[in-house]
Every structure is written in structure tokens, then in C-alpha cells.
Amino acid sequence: MKKLATLAIATLLLTGCTPAGEEKVELVRLATHESFYISDEQITEFEQSTGYQLEVITLGDTGSLTNKLVLTKNAPVADVVYGIDNTFASVAIENNIVEQLKQVNYGDVCFNYDIDWFEKNNIQPPTSWRELGDSKYKNLVVIPNPNLSSPGMAFLITTHAGFETEAEVFAYWRSLRDNGLKTTSSWTDAYFTDFTRYGGERPIVLSYASSPAAEVKDGKAQSKSLNTECFRQYEYAGVIKGGLNPQGGQAVIDYLLSKSFQESLPWNMFVYPNPGFEIPAEFKEFAPPAESVIGEDLDFASNRERWLTDWSDVFDN
């Protein structure tokens, strides 16, 4: 009997069948970046409403996420992706890894500064990213590396949009380099390790216009965004070509676009929902979208590799 039972179980495992009376739950795999957040309640809501079991696979920052999906496109590690943005969308499209990209949210990449640090050190904070090469901000600035991070790439694009000539762009980059700019492998490292709000030594960090909402304490802002000449970043979701469960992947996208998920975005991931959904009062007061954005009209898809090479030539030599 024991041998027969063992054979029966082995047969079920090999055939993928389930015992009579038990319904098989189909798995759907979501690849995303390290800043993605979905609550247990939302996972339950998704699974109960769709019948799919959700597995979330975290693949680093946006750049790492995109590059890993490219490297595994012949044997996809997931069925759907969330978190490819407009700075990396061309990489996904050129490598044919997704069926279609649908906008899920947006955020404005801007520098943030630690209000208390500047007050205690009696230093006037910057009013624009253009000032960050000034000697009074020496060794005070940290950004994620453009080669690895979408906010970093967004800043690189911003500098090209902000100057008339490439000579001016290079001169600005060199001023940052000579002024002690620090680069990290990800936004998470820049913000939660090097930013003074979290015990680091850099009071100016490349982040988002929405980030100060997370720093409000007792109704008072603790950080502020430089809200002009920022880069507007759109994040997308897409069904991965060759994935095992494209129908489940589409169900994930439908949920990400639902009212339930959209209205959770500001507090869960500190990004703004798609148009038509409400932004919380605290965001309107302390972390509104940027007053002005630049760079969206540039052909950064075609120039991407050259610009990154130029950046590396300045900062790695």
C-alpha cells in the first residue's frame, strides 16, 4: 500500500494533475524592481478576484530589471513585468521582450535636500541642480549611477536638455566630478544609505518630487525637492513574450490599473497615479509634482549608449 501511494503521488507530480476534488491554482510570476510594493491585502484581493497565485520576483533597480529580462528572454523568468520606465523602455522594445507597455504611474526625478542639515550647518541650500558644481556643495551630493539606475539616467537626460551644447554638458559633469559627486549602484543605496536623513553623509540626493512626503514629521517637512527642470519618469507594465502564463500576466496588469491599486501608489511607492485618480492631501502640500519638466522631447533612445559612454569617460577616468 505504501508503495502504491508513493507511486500515485509521483504520478501526480509528473503529470501536473491534482487529486480529485482539489482545484489547481495557476501561478503568475511578476518581475519588478526593488522599490515595488504590494500589500498582503492587495495580493489576497488579486488572487481571490482572478484565481491566480501571485509570485513577485525582485530583480534590482530598473536598469538591472530590464537588463536581466533581456539576458533571459529565451527562457523568461516571469510572465509580466512592472517597473520598466521611459528611460529603459527602448531597451525592452529593441530586444522584443514585452508584448506592449502600459503606463501605470509617473514620478518626477528631482534632487532632494535635508532641510535640517542645511539649517544646522548654516549653509544656503541649492535652488537648482545647476548649482551643484559650486564649491559650497563639495562632497554633499549623491546620485545613482546612470549606467545602472533609471533616476540616474533621467538626470543624465536632464543635463542634455538643460544646456545648448555638449561642451556645456561635459563642463557641468566635470564640475560635479571635481566637486566630489558620489554615485551608487541604485536609488535605494543613494537614498537610504548615503542621504543624511538616514544616517549618511550626503544632504543632497537625486530622488523624486514625491519623496518629501515620506519625510514629514509632526506636520513639518524634513526634506525639500528642487522642483524645477526635473525629468518626468513614466513606469510601465507589460506581458513578457514567451512567458508561461500570458493570461495571468494580463490579469496582473489589469489589477495594477485598477482603482484599488492606483490609489495606493502614493503612500506605497511614493509615485503619482495615472490621471483621473486622486493625489493625497499630504502630497499636494509637501510633495506636489514638479513645476517644470525637461528632456522628454530628446531622442534619448538613440543617444543612450553614447551618452553613457561619455558619462563614464568623465567620471571613470
Task: Describe, in plain words, how this protein is organized in 3D.
39% of the residues lie in helices and 19% in strands. With 317 residues, the protein is an alpha/beta fold. Strands 1, 2, 3, 4, 5, 6, 7, 8, 9 and 10 form a ten-stranded mixed β-sheet that branches. Helix 2 links the parallel strand 1 and strand 2.
Could you provide a short overview of the structure?
By secondary structure, the protein is of the alpha/beta class. It has 13 helices and ten strands. Strands 1, 2, 3, 4, 5, 6, 7, 8, 9 and 10 form a ten-stranded mixed sheet that branches.
The gross shape turns out to be globular
How far apart the termini lie comes to 72 Å
What would you report as the Rg, rounded to the nearest angstrom?
Answer: 22 Å
What can be said about the biggest beta sheet?
10 strands, mixed
- Please provide the count of β strands: 10
How many helices? The count is: 13
* Structural class determined from secondary elements: alpha/beta
Q: Which whole number gives the mean pLDDT?
A: 91
**Residues in helices, as a percent range:** 25-40%
Which percent range describes the beta-strand content? 15-25%
Low-pLDDT windows of residues: 1-22
Topology pattern, helix = H, strand = E: HEHEHEHEHEHHEHEEEHHHEHH
